[in-house]
Design goal:
By secondary structure, the protein is of the alpha/beta class. The chain has one domain. Helices cover 27% and strands 13% of the residues. The chain contains four helices and five strands. Helix 1 packs parallel to helix 4. The longest helix is centred in the C-terminal third of the chain and has 14 residues.
């Protein structure tokens, strides 16, 4: 069985954006509660935080029980390149980064979803996006949606 992958943004998801330092990751526990119910789900960081922290540091933001499930980060791709995937325009760069990571690391049938606060980084019809409100971050309503999305993918 393929292990589903969640691509996670940080700012606007794990905490509101903008955010005071003392509130960083204040929304992450809501996500973690759901992830603990789905032990097969793996996590890939798709946030710009990947450019400032290494994988081990990023794992450290998560609950101990989830750290081993943070398996990687997406590459930062700012413009189309020779390996640009068909069907993706430059304006959907985050979705392309997720698709490129999946192409490199997973079987084509592996289910995935992204939690992000920037709709314009994904195609409008992207069924694999859980869009958060950047002003509040991941909410209790998002928690219900994430639970449903993961149930459909596991």
């Amino acid at each position: 069985m393929n292990r589903p992958v969640i691509f996670m943004d940080v700012d606007g998801v794990c905490h509101p954006e903008p955010c005071k330092r003392e509130l960083e990751f204040c929304c992450l526990p809501l996500i973690e509660v759901v992830l603990l119910e789905f032990p097969l789900v793996q996590i890939v960081i798709s946030s710009s935080w990947r450019e400032h922290y290494d994988l081990e540091q990023l794992r450290g933001f998560f609950a101990v029980e989830l750290r081993s499930r943070v398996i990687g980060v997406t590459a930062s791709i700012k413009r189309p390149s020779a390996d640009w995937l068909p069907g993706f325009g430059a304006q959907y760069e985050r979705e392309w980064e997720c698709a490129a990571w999946m192409k490199q690391h997973c079987d084509w049938s592996t289910p995935w979803l992204a939690i992000d606060d920037r709709a314009h980084w994904f195609r409008p019809e992207c069924a694999d996006l859980l869009l958060t409100d950047s002003r509040i971050g991941f909410s209790a309503d998002d928690q219900k949606i994430l639970h449903q999305m993961l149930r459909e993918r596991t």
